[in-house]
Design the sequence.
């Protein structure tokens, strides 16, 4: 008659399967300990794995926007530097014009100063960052100011000829009155700096490009030389260099200098407001970057909560698996000793 | 006989329903990706949408060939520099047909043009129609669709793993029960062996006693 309900085979088998399970748990735990992450992420997270993937892709896209924002910041700072330089140049030019008005500077002297200052103005307008013209907007491969080209001077000359019926170097230009000189500058001359002549002759600039600075936040990535303020600055220089050397009457010369002075002042006001704009965009950019950075931190902590293992908990788990394993080994050895045959 | 479980049934299910469903989901995702990067003509609305950065190389252009899209997904060779393409078309538009001015977005050729790139970003996160037959929500963005696909797969994996664990535990219990019912216990057998051995010993003893009795009887009568 059978006295036990347990066969020797199942007695040995139970221990064997338990050992296998424990050894698997042990290797998984060791892998988690060395990587710091759950060994099988998709199995551990199940349906929330998509949330983890979402967080992960967001963290990466925020990183991309943050690095582009850093580039934008550099752009804005360089643009601000260029605008500040232009402001200084035009301020010096303004002093020269005032000096010429009071007679302290001759017409020829003004001419020299104007061309020198114009060179530094075009230097600032054609500032580059990483090989891109800062003030050219989307046409970043074209200079924002081409300088006073032969085409430009020819345009001014033909407008002059058209209005006054004589060329600029005609000795009879002394008959032109101050008023008609002012009217020409306001109308005929100013029209040479309107679009599309401005883009054809004087500047290669386009409109500023839009850039993404945050979630759904877009921003113009700079200032364009298409802005009226910068055009006015250029006009004030060009008018002196084109007409200033002519044999003008006292009155006409005064009208010319006054108009140029007016253009410089309007231009400087415009430059100041452009600088304000850049400053406020810089602070908006900074805010957007901070928002993004704090969101990235949040996402990172959420995603590491999901994917990473608690090191303390893990080491305790490993310890418990180890002790269970060694108990299991000891038990197996004891059980295999426990046979009636050994006692006969 | 209908095979409902086991290795063979599993392999058949994988072949006939699980993989085809995943395939159609991947196809929908691939078509969606092509759609998200496709180009609309700039001026007239009569012209068809053309694929942009991603193309399906299957040949049948109509409806981007819904079947097998994932297998045919490729980068448009017109923008792949390794194949002699011009990578700047990504910025300028007219990727599929660089000669067609209707599809050019950057009409002035400005190097700093960014509208097209911004449009890609917004296309990726705005809803579009996916093939509903694939069994996932169909009116979502590419990003959401791929997330849903991930959820679908990982969820299925987790539940399958759980049922595998459960079945395995069941099997172990059954094997133990079976072995207990039909197997032998060595100690038990040993005890029974000893029992038999003892009775054998006792019997032989008995025989030798009887033998002795006969011996002495024969000696008396001789």
Sequence:
């Amino acid at each position: 008659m059978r006295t036990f309900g347990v066969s020797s085979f199942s007695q040995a088998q139970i221990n064997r399967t338990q050992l296998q399970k424990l050894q698997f748990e042990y290797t998984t735990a060791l892998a988690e300990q060395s990587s710091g992450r759950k060994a099988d992420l998709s199995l551990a997270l199940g349906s929330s794995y998509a949330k983890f993937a979402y967080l992960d892709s967001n963290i990466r896209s925020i990183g991309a926007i943050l690095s582009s924002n850093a580039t934008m910041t550099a752009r804005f700072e360089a643009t601000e530097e260029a605008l500040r330089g232009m402001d200084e140049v035009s301020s010096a030019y303004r002093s020269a014009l005032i000096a010429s008005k009071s007679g302290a500077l001759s017409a020829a002297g003004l001419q020299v100063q104007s061309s020198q200052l114009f060179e530094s103005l075009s230097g600032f307008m054609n500032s580059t960052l990483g090989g891109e013209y800062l003030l050219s907007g989307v046409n970043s491969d074209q200079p924002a100011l081409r300088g006073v080209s032969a085409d430009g001077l020819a345009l001014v000359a033909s407008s002059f000829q058209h209005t006054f019926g004589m060329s600029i170097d005609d000795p009879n230009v002394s008959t032109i009155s101050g008023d008609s000189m002012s009217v020409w500058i306001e109308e005929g001359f100013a029209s040479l700096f309107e679009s599309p002549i401005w883009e054809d002759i004087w500047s290669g600039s386009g409109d500023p490009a839009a850039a993404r600075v945050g979630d759904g936040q877009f921003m113009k990535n700079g200032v364009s030389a298409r802005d009226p303020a910068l055009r006015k600055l250029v006009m004030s220089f060009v008018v002196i260099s084109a007409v200033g050397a002519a044999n003008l009457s006292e009155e006409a010369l005064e009208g010319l200098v006054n108009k140029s002075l007016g253009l410089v002042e309007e231009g400087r006001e415009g430059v100041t407001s452009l600088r304000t704009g850049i400053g406020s965009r810089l602070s908006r950019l900074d805010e957007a970057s901070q928002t993004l950075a704090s969101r990235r931190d949040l996402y990172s902590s959420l995603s590491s909560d999901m994917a990473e293992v608690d090191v303390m908990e893990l080491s305790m788990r490993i310890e418990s698996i180890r002790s269970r394993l060694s108990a299991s080994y000891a038990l197996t050895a004891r059980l295999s000793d426990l046979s009636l045959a050994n006692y006969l | 006989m209908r095979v409902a479980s086991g290795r063979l049934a599993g392999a058949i299910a994988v072949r006939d329903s699980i993989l085809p469903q995943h395939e159609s989901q991947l196809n929908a995702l691939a078509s969606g990706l092509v759609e998200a990067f496709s180009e609309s003509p700039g001026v007239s609305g009569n012209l068809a949408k053309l694929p942009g950065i991603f193309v399906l190389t299957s040949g049948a252009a109509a409806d981007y060939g819904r079947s097998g899209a994932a297998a045919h997904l490729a980068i448009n060779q017109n923008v792949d520099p390794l194949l002699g393409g011009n990578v700047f078309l990504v910025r300028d538009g007219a990727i599929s047909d660089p000669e067609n001015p209707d599809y050019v977005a950057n009409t002035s050729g400005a190097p700093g043009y960014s509208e097209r790139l911004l449009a890609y970003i917004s296309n990726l996160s705005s809803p579009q129609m996916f093939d509903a037959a694939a069994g996932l929500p169909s009116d979502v963005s590419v990003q959401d669709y791929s997330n849903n696909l991930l959820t679908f797969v990982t969820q299925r994996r987790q539940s399958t793993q759980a049922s595998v664990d459960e079945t395995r535990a069941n099997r172990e219990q059954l094997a133990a029960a079976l072995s207990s019912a039909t197997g032998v216990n060595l100690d038990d057998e040993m005890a029974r062996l000893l029992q038999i051995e003892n009775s054998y010993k006792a019997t032989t003893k008995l025989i030798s006693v009887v033998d002795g009795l006969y011996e002495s009887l024969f000696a008396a009568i001789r």
